[in-house]
Amino acid sequence: MRITEIFHSLQGEADAIGWRTVFVRLTGCPLRCVWCDTEYSFHGGQWHDIDAILAEVARHDVGHVCVTGGEPLAQKRCLILLQKLCDVGYEVSLETSGALDVSAVDPRVRKVMDLKAPGSGESARNLWSNLAFLHQRDQVKIVIASRADYDWACSVLVEHALAARCMVLFSPVHGAISPRQLADWIIEDRLPVRFQLQLHKLLWNDAAGH
Ligand code: SF4
Predict the structure, then answer these.
(1) pTM exceeds cut of 0.85
(2) Domain total for the chain?
């Protein structure tokens, strides 16, 4: 598999926030969200076989492993990697764009699946059939860059009964919308969603390796 980086840090978002976690960042993504903060993962990387990845993860003595990207599901062997990480006994999460089919992901994996709002430039890529494969412990994340994105997210929330399926996370685009503004809208509208800021940005300002 082509890997951009494997590193040990704190989980910066979603329901495992704050846990020491090893991140396995797979190289490549077929999307180009305008606010993407991991463009360095689009190209390059190094080839590792799955056993080498498992050995590197094991070095860090953690309970949580996050498989991320890029778009990890763009590499077919990602499904095997996820399964093997679960077999070892890790709490495994998968960060995915919502544009690729998640139906074959091991049910032990916690999926953190984006739905792309219009401000991402990639809204047309949302694969709505994925919603049928979400479990209660999965999470849907909508990254919001503007009031128009927020209004879109509110409509999607109702239209697809998202909050009844799993936890829904609303997150502001760093530098595009004030976090406080988004928090105020969520409170005013009494939304059944969880507001989140990315911990790694607050702690390390997105420096490499975190
Ligand atoms: S799906 Fe993720 S990695 Fe790909 S362009 Fe969008 S934000 Fe970046």
Answers:
(1) yes
(2) 1
